Amino acid sequence: MSTTSLMAPPRRTDFLVVGSGIAGLSFALAAADHGQVLVLTKSELLNTSTNRAQGGIASALGDEDSFLQHEQDTHVAGDGLCHADAVSQIVREGPESIRWLMAHGTQFTRDEQGQLHLGREGGHHHHRIVHARDLTGAEIERALLESARRHPRITLMPHWMVVDLITRHHYTDAGRADGGPCHGAYVMPVLDPRERFSVHRVLARATVLATGGSGQIYRHTTNPEIATGDGTALAWRAGARLANLEFFQFHPTSLAIPEAQNWLISEALRGHGARLVDARGRRLMEGVHPMLELAPRDIVARGIDQVMKTEGVDHVWLDATHLPAHELLEQFPTIHQRCLELGVDITSDPIPVVPAAHYQCGGVWTDLDGRTSLPGLFAIGESACTGVHGANRLASNSLLEAVVYGRRAAAVLQCEDLPEVPEARIAPWDKTGTYDPEEWVVVSHDRDEIRRLMWDYVGIVRSRPRLERAQSRLALISREIEHYYRRTSLRPGLVELRNMAAAARLAVGCALHREESRGLHARLDFPSRDDERWARDTLLERDEEGKPRWLDHGPDRPG
Fold first, then answer.
1. How confident is the model at residue 1 (pLDDT cuts 50, 70, 90)?
2. What pLDDT band is residue 129 in, cutting at 50, 70 and 90?
3. Is a pLDDT exceeding 80 seen at residue 553?
4. pLDDT score for 391
5. Where does residue 317 fall: left (phi above 0), alpha (psi -120 to 50 degrees), or beta otherwise?
6. In order of start, what are the domains of the chain with their CATH numbers?
7. Which amino acids are annotated catalytic?
């Protein structure tokens, strides 16, 4: 392994991976056996959504469980939009994925008999959550990163970010050509002062987007600050098809304490018996759903949202005080310690909680091996729309999906007929006519405005007036950002801001297009699920003017 801080363009590799979470590292470790892998990430290697994942990874391992039951729970949560082939694939590859993670050093929690301890979370009818106490993601990230660092064919490059993907549009003789094969990416350093505003080329036989989600487009989110919709925006500008961006999962229970910055309280605590209550101690989910606190996340989040609006409060409570203190300390040490630092003892105090943007169920449209609609471009993990999640993600299916698709994409690339990389025809980054920006303040506040607009108008409950208000304002913000982007030298914050604006506009467009309520998408003006018109994915691609073209009946999957 090597870690690079300064790079002279152009650089070549077999596989370029954008993102260092579980999806990107799973791909890198599986692909490194048959090629050189370069893993880029715009922050620290550990600063990923994976590293924040507390609950676990779902797999039907229990004696009373089955693949069929796991599939059924996934379909129920997905509210009619999950793809049966994709769901069956990840469920049936679950046990092997767990073994593969353990082979790379992941230490999962075991019971007194030495067997894997299986927890339970919302939407699951059985105990099937493999976990490492309440820091599962951090343990998986640690193990995979250590394996990647040891591998001689994997190069890790933190603090480098992708500006745009390289396609036919960037050929020196492109003319008006657009889209076409992906040959890598234009990248820039995030921290190196010696290369301020410089953009380099990385050329690759295959480029893999593993950039995570876009939670930062919302004011309240459990996502790290790097989750700015980069994969969605990069793929969109390159001409790849996207799907289902209206379905954004709000985690029902993030800490409603300002200093906590929406730190999430794992669903596993509710699986262990914690109850959602209002200020009077009334149980919120009684009469709402037979599974109470373990109902699918969209139902729980809407239940909390309704209570907050009805009672005029800014949070509700998660009460675990009736549970044995020693069990809470043993099973949830991280949650206990974090809450204690903020003045809440979960063994004796109810926890103030509020929903927060958590998981992007749509993304770059892929097939069952991670291929996108552009040759040479793959997408895996949260940045992809594989068909697994449908209209709502079943808890702890995300880590499983990331491992399965990361490994499958690597396997298919062993025999994939990848496009040639015409190095001589790929133009260097053109910054002619730009200048070093001195008035960043012109657009610096747009980030906060995007987040407020999305929270206020494109949140847990939507309507046409709210969505149209967000759409018109985001259109103006996007024009301001694009004008500034075209005439100034680049800085990382501007690249992120441009991606956030694109991801937000695409989400709003998808939300306006789907005129029904289903899963995570709840509209006051279309309150019912409409299977006659909308039992299908929201597919879109760029038209000749760069605007969304809706593919209502949808093409076949890529590949």
1. very low
2. very high
3. no
4. 95
5. beta
6. 2-54+136-247+359-412 (3.50.50.60), 254-356 (3.90.700.10), 435-550 (1.20.58.100)
7. 297
For residue 127 the two structure tokens come to 């105990």
Q: What is the dihedral of CA 406, 407, 409, 414, to 10 degrees?
A: 150
CB 166 within 8 A of CB 144: no
Which pLDDT score is estimated for 419?
A: 80
- Per the DSSP assignment, residues forming a β-bridge with 518 are 521
Q: How confident is the model at residue 2 (pLDDT cuts 50, 70, 90)?
A: very low
Q: What is the pLDDT of residue 440?
A: 58
Residue for token pair 């129920």: 76
Dihedral angle over CA of 540, 541, 546, 549, nearest 10 = -50
Cβ neighbors of 98 (< 8 A, separation 6 or more) are 57, 59, 61, 108, 116, 130
- Number of H helices and number of E strands within the chain? 17, 20
Token digits of residue 382: 């949260």
Token pair, residue 283, equals: 């149980």
Beta strands 539-542; 275-277: pairing state: unpaired
Report the predicted TM-score, pTM, of the whole model to 2 decimal places.
0.91
CA 249 to each of CA 212, 216, 378: distance values in angstroms, whole numbers, following the listed order: 14, 13, 23
